[in-house]
Design a protein that fits this description.
By secondary structure, the protein is mostly helical. The protein folds into two domains: 109 residues, Cytochrome c-like domain (Cytochrome Bc1 Complex, Chain D, domain 2); 124 residues, Cytochrome c-like domain (Cytochrome Bc1 Complex, Chain D, domain 2). It has a two-stranded antiparallel sheet with strand order 1-2. Helix 8 crosses helix 11. The two termini are 31 Å apart. The chain binds heme C (HEC) (2 copies). The site of one heme C (HEC) has 26 residues, from helix 5 and helix 6.
């Protein structure tokens, strides 16, 4: 938590400094961060994992520390496996430590596990492969590769002392209530313009500032692809409600979180790697849920149709 606050303050300072430096550059204004509100949404009583810096000075400790680096600088250390502009810790916040943001320690003690997504018993490494394939729109490192062993070692180190086979408090995203009104694009776009676009950009493409903060993409050619968990409106709404806008976490109402998640899911993004002949066929096979807009028409655009959908596994 401390570390995260510090990083948040550093990002805040960089953004404020950037605003002065770039004051007369109308093309790329650095977003100003509002003053931090107290975090209202926390997984109370969640486990507090040890720091990777405290891992032993041996081969295992080296793997743990490399695993932490892979979480925050994924493309630097595993470039051939990453196909977009994201790193693991853009979603698994605080390098996979933050309770309520799908922390790796909570995942580790629940694998191997059956997953309906592929109908198999998945090892932890297999589960991580899926986040490379879908969330990083890339090519998964092979099972047993140095990269997957490192991420698994990091998760195992953090999870020491947790009972296995049970979901500890803080696993996954904090649950969000159902919306009172059906999520709506008009309201969602207003939330986006007012509370998200300063960082993620008016066109959802994210923004990078030289030596400054990096705001990850949400739609277009460089975000997670259509097969990712974040492409599910219910998962995105839960993540956004508890973790966004950065610096004002918990300030959105439940309805605002659903509306903006619905709006973001109505945009184009890279193809589902499981694509089968058409958007309709792929929806029937893999996206048949009210929480996905894949294969539906939004603003005249058939989402997932190859004519308007960047291919999967590319786009960095
Ligand atoms: C775009 C956001 C995003 C990125 C980037 C991302 N993930 Fe995930 N990840 C998710 C979502 C969403 C889930 C599903 C969480 C849930 O169902 O509660 C998930 C689940 C997981 C799980 C299982 C969690 C559990 O409790 O069962 C692991 C392990 C994991 N990711 C590791 C990684 C690693 C390692 C990387 C980088 C190589 C990565 N993820 C990149 C969004 C992301
Ligand atoms: C002050 C800047 C800021 C604001 C405002 C902001 N975000 Fe973010 N957002 C970030 C940063 C930075 C990350 C990556 C977190 C990290 O790496 O620690 C992120 C990550 C995300 C992610 C997961 C990563 C990805 O690209 O898919 C989603 C989804 C997201 N934000 C949605 C939103 C939504 C919706 C809003 C408005 C309600 C919003 N954000 C407002 C800075 C911001």
């Amino acid at each position: 938590m401390k570390r995260q606050l510090l990083v948040g303050m550093m990002i805040g300072a960089a953004a404020v400094a950037g605003a002065f430096v770039l004051a007369d550059r109308v093309d790329s204004p650095a977003p100003l961060r509002p003053p931090s509100l107290p975090v209202q949404l926390q997984a109370a009583g969640a486990f507090s994992p040890p720091s990777a810096a405290d891992a032993p000075n041996d081969a295992f400790g080296d793997a743990v520390r490399f695993g932490e680096q892979l979480m925050t600088d994924t493309a630097t250390h595993a470039q051939q496996y990453v196909g977009n502009g994201l790193v693991c810790s853009n979603c698994h916040l605080d390098a996979g430590r933050k309770a309520g943001a799908a922390p790796l320690w909570a995942a580790f003690v629940n694998f191997p596990a059956f997953r309906a997504k592929n109908g198999e018993i998945n090892t932890f490494q297999k589960r991580v492969q899926d986040c490379f394939l879908y969330s990083l729109n890339g090519t998964p490192p092979p099972l047993g590769s140095r990269e997957l062993i490192a991420i698994e070692s990091y998760a195992a180190f953090m999870a020491r002392g947790l009972p296995s086979g049970m979901s500890p408090t803080g696993r996954g995203f904090l649950a969000i209530d159902a919306p009172k009104q059906t999520p709506d694009d008009r309201r969602g776009s207003a939330v986006y313009a007012e509370k998200c676009s300063a960082c993620h950009g008016p066109n959802g493409a994210g923004q990078k500032f030289a030596d400054g903060p990096v705001y990850p993409p949400l739609w277009g050619a460089h975000p997670y692809n259509w097969g990712a968990g974040m492409a599910r409106i219910d998962k995105a709404a839960a993540f956004i409600r508890a973790n966004m806008p950065q610096g004002r976490e918990g300030s959105l109402t439940v309805q605002e979180a659903w509306d903006v998640a619905h709006y973001i899911d109505g945009k184009t993004r890279p193809q589902d790697p499981r694509f089968a002949t058409s958007a309709a066929a792929t929806r029937a096979l893999h996206q048949d849920t009210p929480f996905s807009r894949y294969g539906t028409v939004v603003d005249g655009v058939l989402l997932g149709d190859p004519s308007n959908t960047p291919p999967s596994g590319q786009g960095r």
